[in-house]
C-alpha cells in the first residue's frame, strides 16, 4: 500500500500561501467573501422548506419534502457553489468557450461547433417521462434561483461577462461533455487510416503485443489488444459477503479524470419523497452519478466501445453534393457565429451529412463525417434519476437500459447480499464490422444496421468467484456471444487489483483503501528487470536493483525508466509519433484541442509493453546514451535528482492558472504525484519527448469511494480538491491534503437520518 502522508503535509503547507493570496484579493475589494450555505431554504418554488446540514468537510445533507423539492435544492447548491465550472462545462461541447475565455479558445470551438451538440441537447426532453421533465425543470429552477440570489462567482469579476441563465439543454450538454471525453475510439480510427502505409509505426500503435489482457467477463476467451487506452481510466470492483469482514458486499470505485479546481464531482446526500441517495453528483446535472441508496450501491468505469465511425465522402466539385449508391445527396449547410470575448465575431460554416457532422474537409474534395451514438436524443438524465431510486437487480437493469452514452462498466451490490455487473450503453450493429479505419461514405455498405439488444449486453450476477473487477480492460473475449470491440486498457491495473483481492480472505475498508492507493507497476518492473540483464551505467544499475515496482514519488527509478522508454522507441517510429493528429493543426499544450495533439497520445499505455515486445529490435545503447543526456539536461545528472515526484506532478487545472496575476488565487502549486499509467493509483501523463519536464498528470483518481451496503454509515469517500468553487472558501481546497495523504471521510447518512435510511421508505 502507498502511504502518502508526506505528500499530504506538503500539500497543506503549500495551501497556506495560496490562502494568504486570496485574503489579499479580498482586502483589495476585488472578490466578495464567500457567504455561508443556508441551513434552510424558503421560497415559493418549494412545496415546503428544505433543510441543509453541511458536515465538516463541506458535504451537504439535503432533507426536502418531495423529490421535486430535493431536485430544486440540488440545483440551488450546484448553482451557488459551482456556477463558473458549470458554465465552462456547458460551453465546451457546444463550442461556445471563446465567448467566455477569448480567442485562445477558438481552436476548440471551431472543432466542437460543427458537432451541433446544442441541437441534440434540445431534442431529449420530449422523449422523457412527465416525472423526469418535472424533476429536471425543478433542478433548472434551483440553479437559476442561485444565479439570481447569490453573489456572482469571482471569475466573472475579472471576465466582466454576464452569467446567462441555465436551461434544460445546458444540463443535457453536461452529459455530452462527459461522453465526448470518454468516447475516443474515433481518434484511433483516424490515425489507423492515416498511417496505413507506415508498417513500423502501425505495428507500434496497433500491432499485437506480448501481454495477457484479462476480460471482465471470465470464460469468454482471449482478447487481442488493438489501440490501447491512452490514460483515461478508472477502477471499480465489488466483493460479496463471503469475501468481506462485514458479511455483506463491499464496493469500491475511483474514476480517473483530469485534475481540476474545483473537483469535477460534488458530493451530496439527497432526501426527498422516494429519493434517498448519496455519493458523487455532476454539477449541472440532477441526481447522483456514483453512489448508494438504502438498497443498492454502484460504481462506474469507462468502456470506450466501438460507438463511432468515420466516413470519407468524395464530394462533387461544388463541395456540397455527393453520391450515395449512385443517388445524389447534399450536405446540409449552416452558418454558426462564434462570439469571442474582447474580439470580433467569427462566422463558421458547418456541414451535416447523412452519416453525421463533417469534422474535416481535406484538399482534393473529400469530407470526413463522424457517426456517434451521441448524435440522438439521449435519455441519460432519466437513467440517472431512475438509478438513484433502484432497489434491486431488476430495477437496476431497468434504469440502465436508458444509459446510452458514454458506455460504462457498472458494478453493483445490494442490501440482500447480491453483487453484479452490467456493460451499459447503446452499441451499434454493423454488417462486416468492426471497421478500424475510415470507411467509404459514397455507398451504404458500411452503414449501421441497428443496436445491440439491451438484454444481450454482457452481465454478471453473483459470479462464483465472489468478486468482480473492472479497470477499462476488455469486457469480453473473442469466444463470447457478444465480443465487444473497443479501445481498452491492456489490463495491468485489472490484474493487479484482482491479485490484491485474492490475497485477503475477508476485505475491509482498510484493505480496499490499500488497493485504491496501490502504486505497483507491473510493466515498469518488467522493464527494469529486462534492462538489468544488459550493460548499464553503474548509477543506473544501482537505481534499478533497488526498484521493487512501486512508483513512489521519492523513487528515482520511474524517472529513469520513462526517460529510457521514450528514447528507446526507434527513431523512425518517433518521427511518426511527432506528427500532429490533424495536418495543419499545430500541436500546442495538451488539451488545447478536443482531439490528441500528436500521435504520442495514442501510444500511451502501449509504450512499455511495445518496448518489451520489440526488445530485440531496439538500439539499447543509443537509448541509454540519449536518456542519460536528457536526464542531465532536464533533471540532473545524478540519481539524487531523479525523484519521480520532481518530474511527475499533479497540477489542478483552472482556466485562470494561465494568468500570472490570478494563478495564485485560483490555482494551487503542483504536487509530487506517485503512480504511472499502469498502477491502480493511476497517474497518466503526456509521453511526447518534446514537452518540458516536469510533466503534469493528465488523468488521475478524481474521487475515491468505498461503499458498505450493510452499514451505510461506514461508507467512505474523498475527492481531489474541495466542495466549493469559490477560492476564498475553506472548502475550495480543504481535501487536497487529506486526499494526498490517503484519508477518507464518512459519506453516508448522519445519525439524524440513519434510522430512517435503514428502515424506510418503501421502494418507489
Topology, element by element:
Elements: H1 5-27, E1 40-41, E2 50-54, E3 60-63, H2 67-94, H3 98-101, H4 106-112, H5 117-123, H6 130-149, H7 154-159, H8 168-182, H9 185-194, H10 199-206, E4 234-239, E5 250-257, E6 266-272, E7 275-281, E8 290-293, E9 296-302, E10 308-314, E11 321-324, E12 327-330, E13 332-338, E14 346-352, E15 358-362, E16 366-372, H11 380-388, H12 393-400, E17 408-414, E18 419-424, E19 428-430, E20 439-440, E21 448-451, E22 459-461, E23 467-470, H13 492-503, H14 509-516, H15 522-531, H16 538-545, H17 557-568, H18 571-577, H19 600-603, H20 606-613, H21 620-634, H22 644-647, E24 648-650, H23 663-666, E25 671-672, E26 684-685, E27 695-701, E28 703-708, E29 716-719, H24 736-741, E30 745-746, H25 751-759
Parallel strand pairs: 3-6, 10-20, 24-27
Antiparallel strand pairs: 1-2, 2-3, 4-5, 4-23, 5-27, 5-28, 6-7, 7-8, 8-9, 9-17, 10-16, 11-12, 13-14, 15-16, 17-18, 18-22, 19-21, 24-25, 26-27, 28-29, 29-30
Helix pairs in contact: 2-6, 2-8, 5-8, 11-12, 15-20, 17-21
Amino acid at each position: 500500500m502507498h502511504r502518502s502522508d508526506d505528500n499530504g503535509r506538503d500539500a497543506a503547507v503549500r495551501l497556506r500561501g495560496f490562502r494568504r493570496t486570496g485574503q489579499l484579493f479580498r482586502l483589495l475589494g476585488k472578490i466578495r467573501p464567500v457567504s455561508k450555505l443556508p441551513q434552510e431554504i424558503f421560497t415559493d418554488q418549494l412545496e415546503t422548506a428544505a433543510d441543509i446540514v453541511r458536515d465538516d468537510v463541506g458535504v451537504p445533507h439535503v432533507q426536502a419534502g418531495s423529490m421535486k423539492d430535493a431536485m430544486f435544492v440540488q440545483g440551488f447548491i450546484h448553482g451557488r457553489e459551482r456556477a463558473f465550472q458549470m458554465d465552462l462545462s456547458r460551453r465546451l461541447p457546444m463550442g461556445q468557450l471563446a465567448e467566455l475565455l477569448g480567442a485562445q479558445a477558438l481552436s476548440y470551438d471551431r472543432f466542437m461547433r460543427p458537432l451541433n451538440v446544442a441541437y441534440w441537447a434540445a431534442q431529449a426532453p420530449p422523449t422523457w417521462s412527465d416525472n423526469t421533465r418535472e424533476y429536471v425543470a425543478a433542478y433548472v429552477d434551483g440553479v437559476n434561483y442561485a444565479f439570481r440570489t447569490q453573489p456572482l462567482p469571482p471569475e466573472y469579476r475579472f471576465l466582466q461577462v454576464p452569467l446567462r441563465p441555465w436551461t434544460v439543454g445546458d444540463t443535457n450538454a453536461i452529459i455530452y461533455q462527459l461522453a465526448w471525453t470518454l468516447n475516443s475510439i474515433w481518434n484511433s480510427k483516424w490515425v489507423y487510416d492515416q498511417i496505413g502505409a507506415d508498417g513500423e509505426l502501425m505495428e507500434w500503435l496497433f500491432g499485437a503485443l506480448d501481454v495477457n489482457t484479462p476480460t471482465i467477463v471470465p470464460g469468454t476467451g482471449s482478447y487481442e489488444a488493438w489501440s490501447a487506452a491512452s490514460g483515461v481510466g478508472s477502477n471499480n470492483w465489488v466483493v460479496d459477503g463471503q469475501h468481506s469482514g462485514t458479511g455483506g458486499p463491499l464496493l469500491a470505485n475511483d474514476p480517473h479524470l483530469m485534475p481540476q479546481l474545483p473537483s469535477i464531482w460534488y458530493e451530496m446526500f439527497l432526501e426527498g419523497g422516494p429519493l434517498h441517495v448519496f455519493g458523487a453528483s455532476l454539477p449541472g446535472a440532477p441526481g447522483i452519478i456514483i453512489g448508494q441508496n438504502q438498497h443498492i450501491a454502484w460504481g462506474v468505469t469507462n468502456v470506450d466501445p466501438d460507438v463511432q465511425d468515420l466516413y470519407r465522402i468524395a464530394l462533387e466539385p461544388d463541395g456540397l453534393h455527393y453520391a450515395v449508391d449512385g443517388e445524389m445527396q447534399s450536405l446540409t449547410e449552416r452558418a454558426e457565429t462564434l462570439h469571442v470575448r474582447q474580439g470580433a465575431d467569427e462566422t463558421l460554416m458547418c456541414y451535416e451529412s447523412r452519416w453525421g457532422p463533417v469534422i474535416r474537409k481535406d484538399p482534393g474534395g473529400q469530407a470526413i463525417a463522424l457517426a456517434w451514438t451521441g448524435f440522438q436524443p439521449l435519455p441519460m438524465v432519466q437513467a440517472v434519476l431512475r438509478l438513484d431510486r433502484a432497489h434491486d437487480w431488476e430495477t437496476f437493469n431497468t434504469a440502465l437500459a436508458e444509459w446510452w452514452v458514454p458506455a460504462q462498466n457498472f458494478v453493483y451490490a445490494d442490501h440482500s447480499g447480491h453483487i453484479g455487473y452490467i456493460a451499459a450503453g447503446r452499441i451499434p450493429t454493423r454488417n462486416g464490422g468492426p471497421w478500424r479505419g475510415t470507411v467509404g461514405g459514397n455507398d451504404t455498405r458500411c452503414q449501421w444496421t441497428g443496436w445491440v439488444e439491451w438484454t444481450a449486453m454482457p452481465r454478471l450476477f453473483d459470479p462464483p468467484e465472489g468478486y468482480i473487477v473492472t479497470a477499462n480492460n476488455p469486457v469480453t473475449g473473442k469466444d463470447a456471444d457478444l465480443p465487444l470491440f473497443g479501445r481498452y486498457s491492456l489490463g495491468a491495473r485489472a490484474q493487479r487489483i484482482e491479485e490484491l483481492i485474492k490475497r485477503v480472505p475477508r476485505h475491509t475498508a482498510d484493505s480496499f483503501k490499500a488497493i485504491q492507493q496501490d502504486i505497483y507497476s507491473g510493466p515498469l518492473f518488467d522493464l527494469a528487470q529486462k534492462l538489468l540483464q544488459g550493460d548499464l551505467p553503474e548509477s543506473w544499475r544501482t537505481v534499478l536493483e533497488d526498484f521493487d515496482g512501486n512508483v513512489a514519488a521519492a523513487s528515482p527509478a520511474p524517472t529513469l525508466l520513462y526517460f529510457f522508454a521514450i528514447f528507446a522507441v526507434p527513431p523512425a517510429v518517433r518521427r511518426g509519433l511527432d506528427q500532429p493528429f490533424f495536418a495543419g493543426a499545430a500541436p500546442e499544450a495538451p488539451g488545447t484541442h478536443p482531439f490528441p495533439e500528436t500521435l504520442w497520445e495514442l501510444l500511451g499505455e502501449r509504450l512499455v509493453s511495445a518496448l518489451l515486445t520489440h526488445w530485440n529490435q531496439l538500439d539499447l545503447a543509443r537509448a541509454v546514451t540519449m536518456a542519460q543526456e536528457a536526464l542531465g539536461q532536464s533533471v540532473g545528472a545524478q540519481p539524487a535528482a531523479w525523484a519521480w515526484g520532481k518530474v511527475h506532478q499533479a497540477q489542478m487545472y483552472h482556466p485562470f492558472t494561465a494568468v500570472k496575476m490570478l494563478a495564485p488565487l485560483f490555482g494551487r502549486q503542483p504536487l509530487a504525484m506517485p503512480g504511472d499509467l499502469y498502477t491502480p493509483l493511476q497517474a497518466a501523463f503526456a509521453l511526447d519527448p518534446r514537452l518540458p519536464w516536469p510533466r503534469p498528470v493528465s488523468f488521475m483518481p478524481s474521487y475515491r469511494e468505498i461503499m458498505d451496503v450493510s452499514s451505510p454509515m461506514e461508507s467512505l469517500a474523498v475527492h481531489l480538491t474541495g466542495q466549493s468553487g469559490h477560492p476564498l472558501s475553506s472548502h475550495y481546497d480543504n481535501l487536497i491534503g487529506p486526499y494526498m495523504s490517503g484519508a477518507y471521510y464518512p459519506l453516508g447518512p448522519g445519525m439524524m437520518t440513519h434510522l430512517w435510511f435503514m428502515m424506510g421508505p418503501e421502494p418507489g
